[in-house]
Amino acid sequence: MSQAINDDELRPTQTEGFKVGEKKTLDEYNQLDANDESLQRWKALLGIAPNAAAATGPKLVIHSLSMESSSAPGGKVSIKLDGSQDELEALKKNPLIVKEGVDYNIAISFSVGSDVLSGLKYLHVVKRTGVTVDKLEEMIGSYGPRPEPYTKRFITEEAPSGMLARSGTNVVRTRIIDDDGTVYTDFTWSFKLAKDWA
């Protein structure tokens, strides 16, 4: 059976009646209602300082994806995502080893280098032996440029357990997309369930 995860499986849920707001540049946000205190607080939450200089760099860089669990050595197992194309290709062939039955959170570390990114969503589909076994869709939110990376943690899930769960490799396709449908990253990785962390 094919382990390929097609684009249709990674389409975000649409909220009926929701209309995406007009995108603005950092300069446009800086010019918005300088006398509006609540807007100033909102802009500060996004990291938009008054009269901030234009940010540079890629709009979004994903540094790592982690499966965090209190039982994991060091609290998590991670994959590095800001490496070379060869390193990204190796993710498909070298699965993470995850202990069966544990509670865990998916967490991503990322940087925003230019512009305010709004309505970011995290999506992933997990297949084992060609059958979809999990789908996660989580709102990441809106973020402004800053030098330090952000970390976003998602809901706590429980890893399956038992001989059947341990019997194959789980192939995961992950995508980060915004309200406009712009795809910022799309990659495939894998993990295996085992009796203990490796």
TrEMBL record:
Molecular functions (GO terms): GTPase activator activity; Rho GDP-dissociation inhibitor activity
Keyword tags: Cytoplasm, GTPase activation
GO BP, sorted A to Z: Rho protein signal transduction
Cellular component aspect of the GO annotation: cytosol; membrane
Record-linked SUPFAM superfamilies: E set domains
Domain of life: Eukaryota
Subcellular location: Cytoplasm
InterPro entries: Ig_E-set, Rho_GDI, RhoGDI_dom_sf
UniProt record similarity statement: Belongs to the Rho GDI family.
Name of this chain's protein: Putative Rho GDP-dissociation inhibitor 1
Taxonomic source organism: Tilletiaria anomala (strain ATCC 24038 / CBS 436.72 / UBC 951)
Organism lineage: Eukaryota, Fungi, Dikarya, Basidiomycota, Ustilaginomycotina
